[in-house]
Amino acid sequence: MRTSKLLLTVAHRLAILAYIVVALFPLFWLLKVSVTPNDLLYSEGVRMWPSRATFEHYTFVIAHSAFPTFFKNSLIVAGSTAVAVTILASLAGYAMSRFNFRAKYWIVALLLITQMFPLVMLVAPIFKMLSPLGLTNSLTGLVIVYTAFNVPFATFLMQSFFDGIPKDLEEAAMIDGATQFVAFRQIILPLTLPGIAATLGFVFTAAWSELLFALMLISGNDAATFPVGLLTFVSKFSVDFGQMMAAGILALIPACLFFLLIQRYLVQGLTAGAVKG
Amino acid sequence: MASIDIQSIRKSFGAFPVLHGVDLTIRDGEFIVLVGPSGCGKSTLLRMIAGLEDVTSGDIRIDGKRVNDLAPKDRDIAMVFQSYALYPHMSVADNMSYSLRLRRSTKEKIASAVGGAAAKLGLEPLLERRPKALSGGQRQRVAMGRAIVRQPKAFLFDEPLSNLDARLREQMRAEIKKLHGDLRATSIYVTHDQIEAMTLADRIVAMHGGIVQQVGSPLELYDRPANLFVAGFIGSPGMNFFEGRYLVSGDHADLRLPNGTTMPVRKRDGVESGSAATLGIRPEHVILADNGALEAKVDLIEPTGFGIIMHVTIHGIPMKIFSQDRRMLKPGPTIRVDLPQDKLHLFESDGKRVD
Amino acid sequence: MTIVAHQKAAKPLRKRIADASEPYLYSAPALILIVTVMLVPLVLGISYAFRDIQLLNPFSGGFIGLDHFRALSEDQAFFRALRNTLWWTGASVFLQFFFGLILALLLDKPFAGRGLAQALVFLPWAVPSFLAGLNWAWLFNPVIGPLPHWMYALGIMDAPNNILSDPHLAMWGPIVANVWWGIPFFAITLLAALQAIPRDLYEAASIDGAGPVQRFLSITLPFLAPTIAITILLRTVWISNFADLIVVMTNGGPADRTQIVASYIFTQAFKRLDFGYASAIALVLLVLLLAYSMLIVVLRQTLLNKG
Question: Which parts form a coiled-coil structure per UniProt (chain B) (predicted)?
Answer without folding.
Answer: none
